[in-house]
Amino acid sequence: MQSRRFPAKILLFGEYAIIRGSRALAVPFHDFEGRWEYKGSAWISPELSGLADYLEGLEQKGSLPAPLDLERFRSDIGRGLAFDSSIPVGYGLGSSGALIAAVYDSYCAKKTTEAEDLQPILARMEGFFHGSSSGIDPLVCLLDRPLLLGGGLPPELVEVPAGREEGPGGLFLLDTGIGRETAPLVRAFLQKCENPSFDALVEKELGRLSNGAIAAFLEGDVEALHLFFRRSAAFNGIISGK
């Protein structure tokens, strides 16, 4: 079994905007990773066994999205296959996405590297964990590249500017140590969008701010990025009711 490591992912911009047709930017995050290991035949992973059952069910219905060698996958599970991951669960960092990426990478008999083709395949596979999936998390984990997503356009591989250490201030991610589930937050957001005045505000502002922040970030325009970030933070306060 290859010892390739699959990174976590972070959705830097567009977490709510992408739901409404705007763009989002997702990047791999190598502070957390997952990889295959064997723990011996006495170990059987319930998670991997359940995933194998799910994929075999798709195969029986003729809806397996890729030519996966499920017989070998099942055999490896019986030999103690495990996914050793440091990616926290419930952080939105792609813990299940990294696992799905590893399964596709290791067991697909005829792999594609095209992001547009991969996304629906990985989304169907990740349905085991979420019922429905956008495929974004496993796509970023598999390709290990920043991706520009949404807006009615195919996923686009992009380069992000190198971090800058000079100058005062900056933007950073803070680990609060508090887990959260994405689905209830998205449901609450969509529920608020049923209010016509809130929906009009989202339609007018959210995409503009998110797309502006992404463009400024990719262009390395720090001043514009800070401006869009402050305005996005204020708007997100409205979304969350704070």
What can you see in these coordinates?
The protein is built from eight helices and five strands; from the N terminus they run ββααβαααββααα. It is elongated and about 55 Å long. The protein has helices at residues 46-60, 70-78, 95-107, 115-130, 136-143, 182-192, 196-219, 222-240; strands at 6-13, 23-38, 81-85, 147-150, 156-157. Strands 1, 2, 3, 4 and 5 form a five-stranded antiparallel β-sheet that branches. The protein is of the alpha+beta class and 242 residues long. β4 (147-150) and β5 (156-157) form a beta hairpin. The protein has two domains: 6-157, Ribosomal Protein S5, domain 2, CATH 3.30.230.10; 182-240.
Which ranges are low-confidence, i.e. pLDDT below 50, for 5 or more consecutive residues? none
Which class of secondary structure composition applies to the elements?
alpha+beta
Overall helicity: 40-55%
What is the distance, rounded to the nearest whole angstrom, between the alpha carbons of the first and last residues? 48 Å
Radius of gyration: 19 Å
What is the CATH fold-level name of the largest domain?
Ribosomal Protein S5, domain 2
Compressed to H and E, one letter per element, the order equals EEHHEHHHEEHHH
Domain unit count = 2
Which geometry do the CA atoms define? elongated
Number of helices: 8
Question: Beta-sheet strand percentage?
Answer: 5-15%
Q: Mind telling me the CATH class of the largest domain? A: Alpha Beta
